[in-house]
# Entry
Amino acid sequence: MTQQAKVIDGGKVVIPANIRRELDIKRGDSLVVERDAAGAIILKTYAQVAREAQQRFRDMRGADGAGSSSVVDELIADRRDEARREAARDEAWQARQR
# Structure
């Protein structure tokens, strides 16, 4: 949807009333101003920015929600596996000694 906005005194931009209602923009609300690669100005509410950030984190985590494991996570998992194997060997040895 394309609509006209007007710049008034002090560089203030008047956003059309129907857009303010649709986006629930109230007097005194702060908006985020961005420029895209083509130089177009984009106004976003903080709620929109928050939703975009949440989506980026969901995308980084992956579809299953587990995300990619770090080297540290892999090391911890390896150490836990080794500890379980060692405990099983110790129990088997102790059982043979009885």
Remarks:
- Helices lie at 17-23, 46-61, 71-97.
- The two ends are 82 Å apart (CA to CA).
- The mean pLDDT is 87.
- The first helix runs from residue 17 to 23.
